[in-house]
Amino acid sequence: MENIASIIDILGTIAFAISGVITATKKRMDLFGILIIATVTSVGGGTLRDLLIGKSPVSWLLDSTFVYIIVLTTIVGIIFRKQLRYVRRSLFLFDTIGIALYTVTGVEIALLINLDPVICVALGTITACFGGVIRDILCNEIPVIFRKEIYASACIAGGALYVILHHYGIAPGINAILSGLLVVIIRTLAVIYEVQLPSIYSKSEL
Amino acid sequence: MENIASIIDILGTIAFAISGVITATKKRMDLFGILIIATVTSVGGGTLRDLLIGKSPVSWLLDSTFVYIIVLTTIVGIIFRKQLRYVRRSLFLFDTIGIALYTVTGVEIALLINLDPVICVALGTITACFGGVIRDILCNEIPVIFRKEIYASACIAGGALYVILHHYGIAPGINAILSGLLVVIIRTLAVIYEVQLPSIYSKSEL
Amino acid sequence: MENIASIIDILGTIAFAISGVITATKKRMDLFGILIIATVTSVGGGTLRDLLIGKSPVSWLLDSTFVYIIVLTTIVGIIFRKQLRYVRRSLFLFDTIGIALYTVTGVEIALLINLDPVICVALGTITACFGGVIRDILCNEIPVIFRKEIYASACIAGGALYVILHHYGIAPGINAILSGLLVVIIRTLAVIYEVQLPSIYSKSEL
């Protein structure tokens, strides 16, 4: 169980780093820029969560494994950047599993320090989504999840399920699997059926 | 007195959240994006202040009332977004009272931990202004207060008055009212008479 | 030695503040905007480092000297902004000495709390570079160091040297001079010979 979580964590980190490499190379950044964007995409959400709850030093400072993984992923990603478009489907899988795991981790940490249920869900969502938000800001784009992704809604639903099951005394391991699965299912269905959040804008506004 | 402060605090939160809704809907964000922008506009300044002084968890994690107010305001704001332009005048009042309160709160917290007077004024101004700054950055705009608003100057003046009156032993309650009023008066007069900071640019530069 | 470090620190602060003034006036910001950009450029990197390692309140809150220096530099910089282009060469010197010092300081602080060597180098680089990154984001630009500056690579090299010499027991004072010199030399040579990071993009991609 512990091992599976670690493997998923590593796959998630890789998927997030690659999404950073893709965005940064589109902006024609240099090596250093790409590395920073890959790092920020991977560790940004967890870092913001740690800052908000006052956990210091923030997690990635204490475990350089992830920094090595990100550096390696960036180098491999740059070399094979033209092939990346062909593996986007597999990347999507890693990425989705990654946000599911990050959501669950974020909610768990927030529950541990007895925050309000709504705040716990918010922290889970921040952990999963804000790496991508910071990536987009550093690339001078309006964050993509603010405009057309069902991404965040999947995290909110999964986070809420975790809080509810936790309230009814479900064991953390089973809870993590069920809530994580919900994130994966919603996100996958949303992409397959091209579901977006219902638009609040009338046609004349667009 | 306590009650009045709470009511002003809530009105300020609502006004800030609505300014977030207005900015986010202009950018055609989806529901989730609008909610994030509304939240960031409301709690961003206080969050940055808390991070800088090391207060953790940051305030809004410990009081979900504000999260509920922001969610509710966002929903109501989206439904009535076309009518929002007609109430901008009343919003302006809430907003101005809000920044006055945020300035005073920020300065008070900084004085409590014995920071230098200049730093106290800076923290009051950050509390009042940086929610809007983060809102504009997330919306991919240069922050409006860096370009044409007398906003920040009003906060600096009110913050400075608070520090001076505090130095002369004026009671916090009276001090808050006087300093807050100064913020409100400067901001209101600036808007009525369309005062901006004196331009440092010659005509040939613009 | 202590005095020299203080003088270099002040010169670095001035150089960073001026680079903020130059960027902000290009964007036609008002007085307040220019002041904020100058401040953020000067203290942004150290602030981010302090937040990440959990040092609070962050350094500049505890020493208002730097705030006064920044305010003064901003005023002088605005008055003489047309002349600034003629002194850019001297500014370059201060700026380079500044990033050398900031890199060394960042690495030293990270070593003190026993972080992994790679993380120490990362924190040194963040201290030196992220003031400029935040400046560019607030000005709605893609950070310049992500695209064409050898800036960050010089910091990484100097930071790595510091960690290595520290490992071999070299005294901090001598280590700081040697590692700082490496940053200065790489950056200066890079600018003189117009060296950039090798481009990862083929001509057809640009």
TrEMBL record, chains A, B, C:
Q: Does the keyword Membrane apply?
A: yes
- Domain of life assignment: Bacteria
Keyword Membrane included in the entry's annotation: yes
User: Membrane topology type, per the record?
Assistant: Multi-pass membrane protein
Q: Where are the transmembrane segments?
A: 6-24, 31-48, 60-80, 92-113, 119-138, 150-168, 174-193
> Which intervals hold domain Glycine transporter?
7-81, 93-167
One GO location term (cellular component)? plasma membrane
Where in or outside the cell it occurs: the entry states: Cell membrane
Q: What coarse category fits the chief subcellular location reported for this protein?
A: membrane
User: InterPro entries, per this entry?
Assistant: Gly_transporter
The UniProt similarity line reads: Belongs to the UPF0126 family.
Protein name (Swiss-Prot/TrEMBL): YadS protein
The scientific name of the source species is: Leeuwenhoekiella blandensis (strain CECT 7118 / CCUG 51940 / KCTC 22103 / MED217) (Flavobacterium sp. (strain MED217))
